Amino acid sequence: MKRSLIMLLVMLSLVVAGCGKDTSKETTNEDSKTVSSSESKEKPPRIKGVTLEQINAKTLEVKSEAIGENLQYSFYIFKDGEILEKIPYKSTNHLSYTVKEPGEYMVRVYVKNSQKKIVTANTDKIDFDLK
């Protein structure tokens, strides 16, 4: 009887010791989560300034200056307060646009980084007369 009791205690201690291995796996998973969450703590981009200039009677030029890594830029052209055209993201921080109709133009610049964090800024408005 004593012998079976001792065997039972030995088996229970082995089972309990085996459970300890599972917690080390959890720690490993938490460690990997910590690494991935620190990677996602990349600072969002910051726009220092945007400008809109009339280059000639039919062309406007938008320039954006932003701080960050792996930045991409998208431009929304507004005419008289309505979206006229959406230019998809690209790595170039400037845009030349040919104006087809007279009106008041403004551009909204979107800047995103590799973590898909996005910031926006609007240019001042410019009146185009096309004369």
**CATH architectural label of the largest domain:** Sandwich
**What is the CA-CA span between the terminal residues?**
109 Å
The tally of helices reads 1
| CATH fold naming of the largest domain | Immunoglobulin-like
Assign a percent range to the helix content.
25-40%
- What's the total count of β strands? 8
Largest sheet: 5 strands, antiparallel
User: Hey, roughly how much beta strand do the residues contain?
Assistant: 35-45%
Number of domains: 2
The structural class is alpha+beta
CATH C-level name of the largest domain: Mainly Beta
Rg value = 30 Å
By CATH's scheme, which homologous superfamily of the largest domain applies?
Immunoglobulins
Element string (H = helix, E = strand): HEEEEEEEE
**Which spans of ≥5 residues are poorly predicted at pLDDT below 50?**
21-38
Shape: rod-shaped
Pfam families: Y_Y_Y
Protein name: Group-specific protein
Organism: Peribacillus simplex
InterPro entries: Y_Y_Y
What does this structure look like?
Residues 22-48 are annotated as: Disordered. Residues 67-115 form the Two component regulator three Y domain. InterPro entries: Y_Y_Y. The N and C termini lie far apart (109 Å). It is rod-shaped, with a radius of gyration of 30 Å. Strand 6 (103-112) and strand 7 form a beta hairpin. The strands form two sheets. Strands 3, 4, 6, 7 and 8 form a five-stranded antiparallel β-sheet that branches. A three-stranded antiparallel β-sheet has the order 1-2-5, with no helix packed on it. Helix content is 29%, strand content 44%. It is built from one helix and eight strands, in the order αββββββββ. The chain has 131 residues and is an alpha+beta fold. The model is unreliable at 21-38 (pLDDT under 50). The protein has two domains: 1-41; 46-128, Immunoglobulins (Immunoglobulin-like, Sandwich). The relative contact order is 0.18.
